[in-house]
Design a protein that fits this description.
Blueprint lengths: L1 H14 L2 H16 L4 E5 L4 H6 L10 E3 L14 H6 L9 E5 L6 H12 L4 E5 L1 H5 L11 H4 L2 E4 L7 E3 L8 E3 L1 H22 L15 H11 L1 H9 L3
Helix pairs in contact: 1-8, 2-8, 9-10
Length: 236
Amino acid sequence: MKYFEVIKNLIPLLEREEENMKKTGHIIAETIMNDGIVQTFGSGHSYAAAIEIAGRAGGLLPVKAVYEETFGRYERIEGVGSEFAKYWDLHEKDCVIIVSNSGRNPFIIELALFVKSKNIPLIAVTALDVSKKTPSRHSSGKRLFELADVVLDDHSVEGDAAVEIEGLNTKVGGTSSIAADLLLNQSVIFAIQEMLSKGFTPPVLVSANINGGPEFNEKLMEQYKESYVYRILLKK
């Protein structure tokens, strides 16, 4: 199974990102301990990675996946991201994770510029080598990795798809979503470990599909309703 082999070979590369995953975990931990929320964003299929760590069993409560209704339809049009950012519920205590494999499109760059204008920590999940070789589509000339405080390299190949099939002139089987999921979930685990080491109880959600899970989560949301819950439920 070619795709499984590709993923097996990818994992050792992702393990090299340990230091940056720990840095990301530190930012997440500090954000939550200071009553901020972790805001994740991905345009198009990158949204799959953004939502991976938001509102899930075994994950942290104060994580919000920012939803963009067009699913990346206008991500290459300059100015759209700046307009979107005007309505973004982003506070100074928050941190932001932006997922973009290419890291080159105007929407992403404008959101990143907006985050940095607020002096808010920014983590990028991107294909670093590919992005370095690819020109920006934004007039600033910037790419996502150049704006981030921490970069998590998903080690994807150009075009993302990585499996060759005889008789087909294009590759199939994208790896960026799986890579981003691994990088972000491990970063969250590092954040939880850091909070515990500092005597802070991390607000971790329990599966609603085990006995007592819904009740536990309801109590957790009640505990944090003033600082977290209302903001997490907002669309932007």
